[in-house]
Design goal:
The structure is a homodimer of 206-residue chains.
Chain A (H helix, E strand, L loop, with lengths): L4 H16 L7 E2 L1 H8 L3 H10 L10 E2 H12 L5 E6 L3 H9 L7 E8 L8 E2 L2 E5 L3 H8 L1 E6 L3 H13 L4 E4 L12 E4 L2 H15 L1
Parallel strand pairs in A: 3-4, 3-7, 4-6, 7-8, 8-9
Antiparallel strand pairs in A: 1-2, 5-6
Helix pairs in contact in A: 1-3, 1-4, 2-3
The structure holds a DNA duplex (30 and 30 nucleotides).
DNA sequence: GACACAGTGTGAATATGTTCACAAGCGAGA
DNA sequence: TCTCGCTTGTGAACATATTCACACTGTGTC
């Protein structure tokens, strides 16, 4: 049962919408309601939930508790995964402040920087370490995910260290693609790319 | 000549890679070289450039200057587009500090917040205004793109104001999808979604 | 009961995106 | 000039993602 990236994204979104919008005090929800919240089609919702093996009822829709449990079974998979962030600049700090309590499946437990003046402190509940400790901290805390918010020049070297330390997935905010060995998953969030895409299509729509 | 979202993203990436990696001192580049930098296949590069109507030579590859000019013709389209950011929190500030000089096609010219203590100053070269001035500032500066870094609760209201003011595209960092009228383009960058997706696939790859 | 209704589950059709594979082009060297 | 080796440009095949459309199902009503 392989689930596509797009479906996983939407499952994550569905669960959060249900949680944030207090649908938990309703016991059931219809595909067209979820679709309206997630801005997609009812057919899409039904297909996603079918892929996730979550069943609804023809008359009452989907049971909210079943939905949450079912999505968690896929996304959480038993235990919270731990993440490490490298590069305590403006963006890194913003992510650290934004993230706590955001996801029930991922937790940022350590932050790294090469600048000694930035380490040793606790930022938004997250301990900071020198880069050289990366391997040992990753191992000790069983960290599986890396977040890169360093400048472009440092990104690939940090990624290499992370992978050597056993990290299995990297979320990259640096404006350059990261080369990884097979089996390591990467996700490249590129601000400039997103903005330029938006600029192009906002012009064309007019 | 309609160009797909994915292709536009990669064109933006290609141009930046050529620029950042100082390929400008080489006069030509092959599709497989660009592909290696962008982490995609040579066929993908050739297809993208074909879509963009950029021609190469069978023996020397693509002319770097032609490439840059050609991609700019598409992404820049004559003039820089201006963007406004709403929500001067940690993330908003991080973006303001990160962005200047990043894109030759988009420029963030104004920032807004509802908190009076945050306005009136200039942050990383960007002037800050109270939310109530949004409509007039957007009109005066001919701003076409909005960036939302407010908390979830405020996001939709801000988006509505932006759209009413004539903004044509919205980059949304709030953890909730934004409803827009047809003709307005949105891009939803959701940290939690990206991390959970990464968590899921990094587990599965092992 | 049996009928109507409003929903789900899903095969099939469609749309979108990527890769293959190969003809054609160009330059270098003999 | 001819040929070889490398490249581009691109139709066609393939892969992935979304939507359609409809049989089926559970509930409420008479």
């Amino acid at each position: 049962m392989a689930i596509s990236k797009k479906t996983i994204e939407r499952l994550s979104l569905y669960r959060r919408l249900i949680h944030d919008l207090h649908y938990s005090n309703r016991s059931t929800i219809f595909s067209h309601e979820l679709a309206a919240m997630a801005h997609c089609t009812p057919a899409q919702v039904r297909r996603d939930l079918m892929t996730a093996d979550i069943k609804g009822s023809s008359s009452t829709g989907y049971d909210v508790a079943t939905l949450t449990t079912g999505i968690n079974a896929i996304l959480l998979h038993g235990h919270i995964q731990k993440a490490a962030l490298a590069g305590i600049g403006n963006l890194g700090r913003a992510i650290l402040s934004y993230f706590p309590q955001r996801s029930p499946t991922v937790e940022i437990t350590a932050a790294f920087d090469s600048d000694p003046s930035k380490i040793g402190r606790i930022i938004h509940g997250c301990r900071t370490y020198p880069i050289d400790d990366l391997a040992s901290v990753v191992k000790d805390h069983a960290i599986t995910i890396g977040i890169i918010t360093t400048p472009r020049e440092a990104a690939q070297a940090i990624a290499d260290k992370m992978i050597a330390a056993g990290i299995r997935g990297i979320l990259n905010f640096a404006p350059i693609p990261i080369r990884v060995s097979t089996g390591v998953e990467t996700e490249h969030l590129d601000l400039t790319m997103s903005l330029e895409k938006l600029a192009y299509f906002s012009r064309r729509n007019s």
